[in-house]
Amino acid sequence: MNLRIDLQIISDWIPDGARVLDLGCGNGTLLTHLQQRNVTGYGLEIDNSKFADCIKAGVNVIQVDLDQGLPQFADQSFDFVILSQTLQAIKRPDFLLQEIARVGKQGIIGFPNFGHWQCRLQLALGGHMPVSRTLPNEWFETPNIHLCTINDFEQLCKNNNIAVLSRSIVNHKHKDTLGTRLLPNLFGQVALYQIKPQ
Amino acid sequence: MPVIIPADSVGLVSPQTLHIDTPITLDCGRTLASYDLVYETYGKLNTDKSNAVLICHALSGDHHAAGYHDMDDKKPGWWDTAIGPGKAIDTNYFFVVSLNNLGGCKGSTGPTSINPETGKIYGPDFPIVTVSDWVESQSVLADHLAIQQWAAVVGGSLGGMQAMQWAISQPERLRHALIIAAAPKLSAQNIAFNEVARTAIKSDPDFHDGHYTAHNTLPRHGLGLARMLGHITYLSDVAMGEKFGRALRNDTINYGYDVDFQIESYLRYQSENFVDRFDANTYLLMTKALDYFDPAKEFNDDLTATMAQIKAKCLVVSFSTDWRFSPERSNEIVNAMLNAGTDVTYAEIEAHQGHDAFLMSIGRYIDIFQTYMQKIAAEDGDS
User: For position B2, what pLDDT does the model report?
Assistant: First the structure.
């Protein structure tokens, strides 16, 4: 099975046999993949329309509203808490980030970078809210209510005493290029972070 | 009124009776020297006996969960929406066992049975049984059927509590527990509703302290009231509003105390219909079994430690407008399971039907239920 490259990067960060919590797990693609390496845990998802896919794959999926945080989970109870492409749809990303750092020994967070040059150009010259491949919705219908840039995210981590262990910035094809390496906030479309409370 | 049996029905079925001579000591301390369990089965048990599913019934349910007893039946069994060929619990694959619980009034030993010690019916002297007692007696039925391990134990409401109790107290004997529209224990409000129902029954002059049969009568009024109250708690405000609204029975209000609104007429019909098919002492017993259910009590009220006993994989389902056992109550179950590391999947189904939703054919619910059962069948095939 070919995994989307951002999920592949996340998967590479997770050792065999780890215990994980996947926040906003959708149809359970990542957990299904990780199961092959004896990774166990739960997927949390508010929308139960794709639960049948999770059940078929044998993924434990729990219907939960992430805006409420993770009060049901004890401190440091998972090796990894993963939040992929969901941070921007959360009411209080700062609160959820703290929750991830509380529940997980490490956190993995992936989000679309709003600082990408195309977004900047559309707003600066086009004078309208950016629409792109990674952010395809119009402003009035988007579930993405808290978009941020790579710089914003790193600042948020700093403010919350969260250390960045590793970072992977890729373009819309989820490839790593010279641009994404030199000027990540300008050329990166998807940002992935491995974090840990300090 | 003969029915044409639908292709997805288990068809005509007949109950069987298992007479058990091994005494059972109940949680209340009393012992039944012998007892009967009435049950039905649908589908075929496979050679390695790995495809058996136990159905646990709720307060007023019985062993007749699917199919028809004869061609004159107006309605199929109580969970025919979920059990049958090609349905969520697919009888083309699974062997389904459904029994009337001990203390019931549909053929298993209960308050309406003859007490062998006295030669008279038990009536109110039948011991109160608990959910744990039911699991114990159901495991005797499993032994009789040579079923070492259920593929799944499935139930809604009080039936879901039995599925949960199975997973906690007999962890090796089931691979999956499906706990639908249940709660880890009753709230004060739940118990209060049960107490009103019991008071309605007990204060009926025809109740005679439970010895109504000896007086050749029935507490029709009290049991009817109890059922009316129960029925209100099974439906949501929305469901009742959609079904009846403020519709009048005769297009006009009467300025009197007889039936004006359709909802009144419906509740009266439900209560009268119920009195003829259910025993008042059994109703009292079932409500007590609900009130007493509290599996965490054995584990210092630690629900996580309780759920840590479980080896089965669990599916927990709740319904958005269920206010008898609301989604919050299912969340308590699930959160304890998450902290115990139990394999669990949880879905809250958007449904307007209230508590009764668990009996209905609701798309998303049936989809998840069916997919889960298919996964069980697939795992069984692999092993």
Answer: 52
Residue of A nearest to B337 (CA): A72
pLDDT digits (tens, 9 = 90+) for B147-171: 999 999 999 999 999 999 999 999 9
ipTM surpassing 0.85: yes
User: Are A52 and B335 an interchain contact pair (Cβ–Cβ within 8 Å)?
Assistant: no
Contact B347 A51 (CB under 8 A): yes
Count, in order, helices (H) and strands (E) of chain B: 10, 12
Query: In angstroms, how far apart are the furthest CA atoms of chain B?
Result: 69
**What tens digit of pLDDT does each residue of A52-91 get?**
999 999 999 999 999 999 999 999 999 999 999 899 999 9
Rounded CA-CA distance B195/B326 in Å is 19
Structure-token pair, residue A35: 């199961």
Q: Which domains, and CATH codes, for chain A?
A: 5-197 (3.40.50.150)
Q: Output the six-digit token pair for B307.
A: 């759920």
Q: Please, what are the domains in chain B?
A: 16-185+294-382 (3.40.50.1820), 191-286 (1.10.1740.110)
d(CA B3, CA B96): 23
- Residue B157 designated active-site: yes
| Active-site annotation holder among B50, B132, B157, B330 | B157
- Tokens 């390695």 correspond to B48
User: Which residues in chain A are contacts of B366 at CB distance < 8 A?
Assistant: none
Distance from C-alpha of B217 to C-alpha of B130, rounded to nearest angstrom = 28
Q: Which two tokens stand for residue B301?
A: 């009220």
> Chain B residues with CB inside 8 Å of A56's CB?
371, 374-375
Encoded tokens for B223: 């049991």
